[in-house]
């Protein structure tokens, strides 16, 4: 297969971890006889420095013309002023919008060798293997009206939670498709006892469940889901939820894996390239020291192979090699280990099977 991949390393540890993911992809390409081309473009703080904008039209066009996009992370203390007219995070929002990415997928697994690394008790973590599907372009973060007004009684702020039926249909259907190749269970998370948007969400999720009898559905209030993620996380297979709930629950779920550095994500649209990035930020406290954990970025590359290129065997090969490296005790500093980013990457490449 030939694939044109755009790499957006970004800021802080972004370049360190994306170069690891690229090395793993190159190694997989060699083993599987594929031809991947990689083109780098700036995003975030480094793009502001160079071009005065967090995402340039040139970068966006290159992404739109690609088969998939691999992103590092953006941001850092240099660009931290929340009132600055241009900020690195604008690059993330602009690229999600530009690529029409409405679904964010975050798999979370507990590795048996890392159960002690999570603040959650090991007996709760055994068997955790879930994927959280978060709606990414609707709800509270984008709804109108939004803003502040002032009158005699004082200042008033408003954000609006808005969902159209089609936005709910496409994300819940995606969750059901994913569940079919997993343990066949969807937990649809809402706040239907209070919110009208959630009542529409629950109604649509129930209708989709009727059309998918092979997959079990459970409706769960978001407050219950927040508690169950800690008390019984192994009960979840696919969680599907709206934007704000997903934003909060995905960060909560990330502690189950032991380190943020371990977790990948994929953002997908209806058509066009997907965007793949580790869930962590630019980690300015360790940037440039060569000690970042590259696993989140490497597993994001595996998701890229699976969802954008349809290379399931190759994706599995990377996931298996990463599992083996962790089982063998390979660890970076975030998991109390001594390996550098390069050494951890080598350990994973060494464990890739000779042929895929
Ligand atoms: P962060 O994820 O960058 O770091 C949190 C902590 O986790 C730090 O101690 C860091 O050293 C550690 N860490 C993160 N990834 C690691 C890895 N791969 N290996 C080892 N340790 C790792 O979050 P933060 O400190 O809140 O944010 C730093 C900057 O990143 C901010 O400017 C923030 O806006 C930005 N950010 C960007 C993204 C993104 O690009 N998607 C996401 C979150 C935060």
Walk me through what this model shows.
The chain is globular, with a radius of gyration of 20 Å. Strand 1, helix 1 and strand 2 form a beta-alpha-beta unit. The model has no long low-confidence stretch (mean pLDDT 96). By secondary structure, it is of the alpha/beta class. Helices cover 40% and strands 22% of the residues. The two termini are 13 Å apart. The longest helix is centred in the first third of the chain and has 19 residues. The strands form 2 sheets. A 10-stranded mixed sheet has the order 2-1-3-12-11-4-5-10-8-9, with helices on both faces. It folds into 2 domains: 204 residues, Isopropylmalate Dehydrogenase (3-Layer(aba) Sandwich), CATH 3.40.718.10; 133 residues, Isopropylmalate Dehydrogenase (3-Layer(aba) Sandwich).
Q: What ligands does this structure carry? A: nicotinamide-adenine-dinucleotide
Largest sheet: 10 strands, mixed
Q: Please, what is the CATH homologous superfamily of the largest domain?
A: Isopropylmalate Dehydrogenase
The CATH class assignment of the largest domain is Alpha Beta
Number of strands: 12
Give the number of helices: 12
Order of helices and strands, N to C? EHEHHEHEHEEEHEHEHEHEEHHH
From the 3D structure, determine the CATH topology of the largest domain: Isopropylmalate Dehydrogenase
Q: Could you say which overall geometry the principal axes of the C-alpha atoms support?
A: globular
CATH architectural name of the largest domain: 3-Layer(aba) Sandwich
Unreliable runs:
none
In angstroms, what is the radius of gyration?
Answer: 20 Å
Mean pLDDT: 96
Instruction: Compute the number of structural domains.
Output: 2
Strand order of the largest sheet: 2-1-3-12-11-4-5-10-8-9
Distance between the termini: 13 Å
Q: Strand fraction band?
A: 15-25%
Helix-strand makeup class:
alpha/beta
Residues in helices, as a percent range: 25-40%
């Amino acid at each position: 297969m030939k694939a044109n991949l755009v790499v957006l390393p970004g800021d802080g540890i972004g370049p360190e971890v994306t170069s690891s993911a690229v090395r793993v992809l190159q190694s997989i390409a060699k083993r599987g006889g594929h031809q991947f081309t990689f083109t780098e473009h700036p995003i975030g703080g480094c793009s502001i420095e160079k071009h005065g904008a967090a995402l340039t039209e040139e970068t966006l066009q290159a992404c739109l013309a690609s088969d998939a996009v691999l992103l590092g992370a953006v941001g850092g203390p240099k660009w931290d002023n929340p009132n600055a007219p241009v900020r690195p995070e604008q690059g993330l929002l602009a690229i999600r919008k530009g690529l029409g990415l409405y679904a964010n997928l975050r798999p979370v697994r507990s590795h048996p060798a890392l159960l002690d690394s999570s603040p959650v008790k090991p007996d709760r973590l055994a068997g955790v293997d879930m994927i959280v599907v978060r709606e990414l372009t609707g709800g509270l973060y984008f709804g109108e009206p939004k803003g502040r007004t002032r009158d005699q009684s004082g200042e008033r702020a408003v954000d609006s939670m808005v969902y159209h039926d089609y936005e709910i249909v496409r994300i819940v259907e995606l969750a059901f498709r994913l569940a079919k190749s997993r343990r066949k269970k969807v937990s649809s998370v809402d706040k239907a006892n209070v919110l009208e948007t959630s009542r529409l969400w629950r109604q649509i999720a129930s209708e989709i469940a009727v059309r998918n009898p092979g997959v079990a559905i459970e409706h769960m209030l978001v407050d219950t889901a927040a508690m169950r993620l800690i008390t019984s996380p192994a009960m979840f297979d696919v969680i599907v939820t709206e934007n704000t709930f997903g934003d909060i629950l995905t960060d909560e779920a990330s502690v189950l894996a032991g380190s943020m550095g371990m977790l990948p994500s994929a953002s997908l649209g209806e058509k066009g390239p997907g965007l793949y990035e580790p869930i962590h930020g630019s980690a300015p406290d360790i940037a440039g020291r060569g000690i970042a954990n590259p696993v989140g970025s490497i597993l994001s590359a595996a998701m890229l192979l699976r969802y954008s290129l349809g290379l399931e065997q190759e994706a599995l090969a990377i996931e298996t090699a990463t599992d083996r490296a962790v089982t063998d005790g390979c660890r970076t500093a975030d998991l109390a280990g001594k390996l550098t980013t390069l050494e951890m990457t080598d350990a994973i490449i060494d464990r890739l099977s000779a042929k895929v």
